[in-house]
Amino acid sequence: MAKLGYLLPTRERVMEGQHETGPLLALAGQAEALGFDSIWAGDSLTARPRHDPLTLLAAVAARTKKAALGTAVLLPALRNPVLLAHQAATLDRLCEGRLILGIGIAADTPAIRRDFEAAGVPFDKRVARMNEAMRLCRALWTGQPVDWAGSWTVKHATLGPTPHRPGGPPIWYGGFLPAGRVRTGRLYDGWFPSQPKPEEYAAQLEDVRSAARAAGRDPAAIAAAIYLILAIDDDPARADARMNDYLERYYGMPAAETRNRERCFAGTEACAAAWIKSYADAGATHIMLRFAGDNERHLDVAARIRRALGWS
Known about the structure:
Blueprint: E1 3-7, H1 10-15, H2 22-33, E2 38-41, H3 53-63, E3 68-71, H4 81-94, E4 99-103, H5 110-118, H6 126-140, E5 146-149, E6 153-157, E7 171-173, H7 178-187, E8 190-191, H8 198-214, E9 223-232, H9 236-251, H10 255-261, E10 264-267, H11 269-281, E11 286-291, H12 295-308
Parallel strand pairs: 1-2, 1-11, 2-3, 3-4, 4-7, 7-8, 8-9, 9-10, 9-11
Antiparallel strand pairs: 5-6
Helix pairs in contact: 3-4, 4-6, 7-8, 9-10, 11-12
């Protein structure tokens, strides 16, 4: 039985000029009441302006009791890891161990390169910077004194509070290319891509697990997740048009380019259920849904799908 998650529309609401957080918190409450297993928030600075995910999830933590809370995905390379470790530990305490840090390196686009420039971070060093940052976070989460000499210099520093979960929140990596799959198996606690098709997922997941075995890690301990975008409507043509309009507004490029890169579904509720199930059949145990607008209705539809699949 797979777990179903929901991505809050932080970017979409800012695009619409709706900067208030109340409606987003209401959506989080609706998702938990409907039985969603996790609630997520995306990350960006100036490339796709949106609410800061860690700050927003702190408010969500106070409004929810059971759902896991995650970032989909956070860009650690943009942040000082000592501050990130402190924020994540505090958030994990607020939600009492429900935090999942989904992380990534971001696509290579002019807007994202400007994000890195604005943050004073070299774009071409982002992979090494991310990996080192997460190692430093994990060291600080032990609560023991840390000495570190690398991209950051830390001298006999002790962080408090420690996270609620011993060792800190699980870290899921969003890389889908071969190097990213190997990186996940070697270093991280979960695989969280948005690109594999259902027929590709099982083989790519095996790449992650093979890398884990080669690194002496338990491959079964690595969470298998997927990030999907859906537009569900009784009229497939209307769903398709809604998806195209949503993608073009969100990414500022032809919808076909995004649909070729990200996994998107547009169609009826029954077909959406079959598509979601195909990922569970391929080995995904955590399926995160992002909706092409109309979030309140889509949440209700997805909850029906969850019940129909027997995942409630």
